[in-house]
Design brief:
7-stranded parallel β-sheet; alpha/beta; 11 strands; Rossmann fold; single chain
Length: 332
């Protein structure tokens, strides 16, 4: 079995959009189920995890998370969050909802995105949701148009949707490689371009926040997503310059080991190494990423574009996480 790497950003590990084929998806889901059944409830400072929720925040947790931002910061603004059905995207959508935004949200899984939309509405936000894939540029254009039709415009795009599967790079199939690149690089580009064209045509400013990954020391075990996310980083820097005359800012957030439901796919030995992923000796959480997104989308970042905000506790400089347990070769 291929070594799994701690998907530095834990990008939608609970999703299977990037998995290469049906057998891979089945194995992935079985691993998720086994992890949830065998893991024991633990206490974690801010909440108690139950049999139904081993990792990440519950909806009640998301509702009550402290924030440095004013509740009305995004009143009258419309924010689109992709991949908002779970994990980082759900936490980000929840925070924007609490700050007064109108929300357009999408996700591949209809049940999850419908449930998440209901949760966002319970926080007081007007919400429109779509079950769709960002791999399809026509669906992406339809999504952007729907945001304008429902809310009369769009102010912020948070590009969070993505997926990948853990595997040694030497064993990638062409189909598996293309699936990850098509979702994480091409899909992100389709979203950015469609949003920017509407802003250009309407003569309106806009802000894009792309969720990428902590790629700075490589991502062994998920090299395909490292390639895709690095592409998004430098694509963002390039178009930040091209689109500056249009008053469109483009930035990225690169999370490290930040706890979401996705931690549940890893072995207990692997999860135990996450506190060793950075010099702060602990995992981050979804709220850390959500607040970074808000910072870059808000007037607080009005003079910031083409930048990457790395939220990793210093993982880019020091750390040694191994989600399946540290291999003997790397034990010192």
């Amino acid at each position: 079995m291929a070594e799994r790497h701690p998907l530095s950003l834990v990008l939608s590990l609970s999703k299977d959009e990037g998995l290469a084929d049906a057998s891979s998806r089945l194995m992935f889901r079985q691993a998720q189920h086994e992890a949830r059944v065998t893991a024991r409830p633990i206490a974690n400072g801010t909440r108690t995890m139950t049999d139904a929720q081993k990792f990440g925040f519950t909806e009640d947790d998301l509702h009550q998370q402290p924030t440095v931002f004013h509740p009305g910061l995004f009143a009258g603004k419309t924010v689109l969050v992709s991949g908002a059905g779970s994990g980082l995207g759900k936490a980000t959508g929840a925070l924007f909802a609490r700050l007064g935004a109108n929300l357009m949200v999408c996700g591949r899984n209809e049940e999850k995105i419908t449930r998440a939309a209901a949760f966002f509405r319970s926080l007081g936000a007007p919400v429109e949701h779509r079950a769709m894939t960002i791999r399809d540029p026509d669906q992406v254009v339809s999504l952007i148009d729907a945001a304008w039709d429902r809310f009369g415009g769009l102010d912020v795009l948070v590009n969070n949707a993505g997926g990948q599967f853990p595997q040694a790079a030497i064993d990638y199939s062409v189909k598996g490689w293309n699936a990850v690149i098509d979702t994480n690089l091409n899909g992100s580009w389709y979203m950015m371009q469609a949003a920017a064209r509407r802003w250009r045509d309407a003569g309106k400013p806009g802000a894009i926040v792309n969720i990428v990954a902590d790629i700075w020391r490589g991502l062994p075990g998920i090299a395909h997503t490292a390639a895709a996310r690095a592409g998004v980083v430098y694509l963002s820097k390039s178009i930040a310059v091209e689109w500056a005359p249009l008053a469109i800012r483009v930035n990225c957030v690169a999370p490290g080991c930040c706890e979401t439901e996705g931690y549940g796919v890893y072995s207990p030995e692997g999860v135990a190494t996450y506190a060793q992923s950075n010099p702060m000796r602990r995992s981050g959480d979804a709220q850390d990423v959500a607040e970074a997104c808000v910072y870059l989308a808000a007037p607080s970042a009005k003079f910031i574009t083409g930048e990457v905000l790395t939220v990793d506790g210093g993982q880019q400089m020091w750390g040694d996480p191994w989600p399946t347990g540290r291999p003997d070769w790397f034990k010192i």
